[in-house]
Amino acid sequence: LEKMTDLVAVWEVALSDGVHKIEFEHGTTSGKRVVYVDGKEEIRKEWMFKLVGKETFTVGAAKTKATINIDAVSGFAYEYTLEINGKSLKKYMENRSKTTNTWILSLGGTDYRVVLEKDTMDVWCNGEKMETAGEFVEDGTETHFSVGDHSCCIKAVSSGKRKEGIIHTLIVGDKEIPEAVE
């Protein structure tokens, strides 16, 4: 494997199926552009005469659209920005924190990352969409699923405040798991 001498940018993108690493090589003399997602080469272009522009590709199980923008700042300096679904990475992650809940937990020595997509009520665990069973309970809803031999439940309860909306809580066995901040 050739050494990544032209590596100019690395981003970590948290999606429902996991945290993905995006690496970008830009040869400013050769015009070479290489995009890696999780260490796998997605795009390779040699000898590009135009040094600015964009490269678009997909990330993760849901094939989320990602674009790297290459802009000249001054002289031979370049700026690289990553957009996810047409939004800057920062904006995308801010919006994502409103539409998903994420919990990180350890069960029997294995680490798990559980993600709830609030709009669809889909539950993901370590990159896989889980089989779930939902039920209405007295104070809201419960979404049941299993991780290994552990029964898990995401409780959705109204906060009673319009601004806060619904509070989602992950319970594994009889323990409440604190939400992770990504």
From TrEMBL:
Signal peptide: none annotated. Pfam families: FAIM1. GO terms for cellular component: cytoplasm. InterPro entries: FAIM1 (IPR010695), FAIM1_dom_sf (IPR038513). Its main location: cytoplasm. One of its GO terms (biological process) is negative regulation of extrinsic apoptotic signaling pathway via death domain receptors. It is found in: Cytoplasm. It comes from the Eukaryota. Keywords: Apoptosis, Cytoplasm. Plays a role as an inducible effector molecule that mediates Fas resistance produced by surface Ig engagement in B cells. Belongs to the FAIM1 family. This is Fas apoptotic inhibitory molecule 1. It comes from Gavia stellata (Red-throated diver).
